[in-house]
Amino acid sequence: MDAEPSGTTRLERLLAYSVVACIGLSVLCFIAVLVGSAVGQGDAQLHGEGPWTALIMFPYFGLSLGMVFVIILIVTSAARRKRATSTTDA
Asked: Is residue 9 classed as helix, strand or coil in its secondary structure?
């Protein structure tokens, strides 16, 4: 794979950006729901009118997917480092 001077691969960078995107969008959706509730959209949220259903449900899946990406990132990073140390030791 393509390696940067810091040792990160393209896959690790893609996973890191995916983590930031999933968790960041989940937090933004959560904030949007809080602001919507504060400005009187609670009734619309309860009845699923407009984009509220998607905004309410996205953090459930986005945070879970972000956590899966974090675990995959840790595993791939550990495997790459293990391979790097085993080739230099041999």
From this structure: strand
